[in-house]
């Protein structure tokens, strides 16, 4: 079979021939893969930079999940036992989701990582309630755009979004955002706008994809003055602008703040199962009904090496068609 194979961490994956994987256990199935998204997670794991990367690596097929067809013709999204950017892969029966009619392969492949990176944070780490105000820091990326729509689907009263790309920020208004905050303005103006929002409609939940300096500014803007403060749950999901921040102890003491993260290792087994049995089916159906919008760029498997490090336009997801 043809596959995208990583021989050495940090190098480009190669389009080459590999032996077809063999089903080894009763709870496994062989799938004919049709599409697999290339995500920041896939690149980080393949390069050895992600915390879930294995210390040792032999030649391996890349990709942790994808969309394909079972031997009986059923279309599913599944997490892979073997690498998914290949013509064939092994999956577990308990880690697949049947796809509804009306959703194309590229969209179905692109959505799950972004849904996990938004819905899990909103539903479990932040425990968002209907009517609450949600601030999404770094909302112009693919996952951020999903978070805007999912927050509204879950009943957010107001969604505030931040980002650098002005055109992308404006486009979020059509997806459900109520107010935009540009990170290109000065720190003083950025914080002043956030404080004004917080004073008018207190921010209940912050979903953060950037971390770094903007997270510092957001946290500083919440700082209290010795009086009772509104409780805010800040959930870190990504670190696009830096892995470390400076956080004042005074800020922590002066505000009712819950600071947590959402990602691999932070979810319980029960929550991970709910992602497969409840959250993803719901979101796939929304997409099939045209109520969840996703922009993808499709590329062919044989071009994987050339396209591995390509710059993907803001808010879009690269999907390999197989």
Describe this structure in words.
- The chain has 322 residues and is of the alpha/beta class.
- It folds into 2 domains: 2-115 and 269-321, Alpha-Beta Complex (Quinone Oxidoreductase, Chain A, domain 1); 119-261, NAD(P)-binding Rossmann-like Domain (Rossmann fold, 3-Layer(aba) Sandwich), CATH 3.40.50.
- Helices cover 31% and strands 26% of the residues.
- It has 10 helices and 15 strands.
- Strands 3, 5, 6, 7, 14 and 15 form a 6-stranded mixed beta sheet that branches.
- α2 crosses α4, α2 (105-116) crosses α9 (269-288) and α6 crosses α7 (212-221).
- The longest helix is centred in the C-terminal third of the chain and has 20 residues, at 269-288.
- The chain is elongated and about 65 Å long.
List the helices and strands and how they pair.
Blueprint: E1 2-6, E2 14-17, E3 28-38, H1 40-47, E4 60-61, E5 65-69, E6 75-80, E7 88-98, H2 105-116, H3 119-125, E8 133-137, H4 142-153, E9 158-163, H5 166-172, E10 179-182, H6 187-200, E11 205-208, H7 212-221, E12 232-236, H8 249-254, E13 257-261, H9 269-288, E14 295-300, H10 304-307, E15 316-321
Parallel strand pairs: 8-9, 8-11, 9-10, 11-12, 12-13, 14-15
Antiparallel strand pairs: 1-2, 1-4, 3-5, 3-7, 3-15, 5-6, 6-7
